[in-house]
Amino acid sequence: MTSSAMPTYVGMPAFPDAARRAVADARLRGNLAHATTTIRGRRAGAVAELADWPALREAGKQIKDHVLANLGHYLPLLEEKVTAAGGTVHWARDAAEANRIVADLVKATGETEVVKVKSMATQEIGLNEFLAEEGITAYETDLAELIVQLGDDRPSHILVPAIHRNRSDIRDIFLRAMEDAPEGLTDSPAALAEAARRHLRAKFLSAKVGVSGVNFAVADTGTLVVLESEGNGRMCLTLPETLISVMGVEKIVPSWQDLEVFLQLLPRSSTAERMNPYTSTWTGVAPGDGPRDFHLVLLDNGRTDTLADEVGRQALRCIRCSACLNVCPVYQRAGGHAYGSPYPGPIGAILSPQIRGIGSDVDASLPYASSLCGACFEACPVAIDIPEVLVHLRARAVEQGPRHPLERVAMTAAGWTLRSPTRLGLAQRAASASRRVVGRGGRIRRLPGPLNAWTETRDAPAPPPESFRAWWARTDGGREEGNE
Fold first, then answer.
1. What is the pLDDT of residues 198-241, one digit of tens each?
2. Which three-class secondary structure state does DSSP give residue 469?
3. pTM given for the model
4. Shortest CA distance to 168 belongs to which of 152, 151, 149?
5. How far, in Å, are 55, 102, 286 from residue 281 at the CA level?
6. 3-state secondary structure of 410
7. Distance (Å, rounded) from C-alpha 272 to C-alpha 327?
8. SS3 of residue 28 by DSSP
9. How far is it, in rounded angstroms, from Cα 459 to Cα 23?
């Protein structure tokens, strides 16, 4: 990985090439189709139970927009409340600062191991890899994250990081990499869960430092909130002596009344549950109860720049539910690894280029990783208009991103042709004449030479036998066509 604002996986090609490899993997496509179809169906049922879902969705959108417009008020308020409750707040401008802060805090305890709650923020900054370079081992305790970590793999889904693995894959990983995996381990869900439970129990009981992300932070009390389904997160939040939480600055809600909206939106959109099994909240430290030392790292890492973009800022409403992934036809076929970022799917296609900037082939290609069908917008519980942001970022990619050397020549030639009706007519006749050469079965599947860059990722219809202009002239606007 690089040491930029957010990791770009080393060796990862641009999305079209990565997606082509993924689509060729029938087993991956099967795993993804089964998982996303199941989750999508359950979510639709859970959402349909609430008659006021549209009103909740609008409320979530407005609360998030209000917070983003008033971060200058709510962030200092949160710091004041956390500090008053006995916590310590740290500010990190980027991934490097956040990683340095966490590593130094762990070293100050004298420990070399930490247990972790599943966290997108720590994936975003590449914390595990940084801690490893500092001689600190981070143990993921979420089951799916554990599978990814033991498999020396990368997560491919925001909510279900090992969604690309099936049960037999997981059994093989456990037998290969889990030192205390039971002999004769089967691939039944109960057996795999029991093996993970026994493996993690020893980590929970021995770890002195826990690291977490944050789903929400209530500004007027300084309370932090983590939602999860397994209870492993709560073990990490309560058993260690020191707790370090890393939080994107946009995770604030003003009050507990506002939190009530998201406690309905998030579980139904992510796991299709009316209420998630574990909602952990904590405010600073309390003598005799939980960690004795608490640190909150407030992470910017490109969010201020994103906030300055009037169209792109809506990506900061995201509550990491992953509903957009499960309805996306592109994600369902290409999987999460093709996005080259901890944030896959439609939300990753708009978030990663804004956090990292459109300077690489990977990031310049992500706004195009969509059919613009709009399913992601319909599914988003906080109404992020992802297609609008994708189109906006495509324009930015054209202006700022890397470009094929022939693209400018082609666009110049196209402009020269379109400015003259005579030249356009000649070009249309030439295209019609070439249809038998470049088109097969009515489709153009591969253009010759450098023009192949256009057809690498798409088919195009073959040119018609004659242009509309030619047809109009020949038939006098259609009046003579019936006499032919």
1. 999 989 999 999 999 999 999 999 999 999 999 999 999 999 99
2. helix
3. 0.86
4. 151
5. 26, 21, 12
6. helix
7. 14
8. helix
9. 16
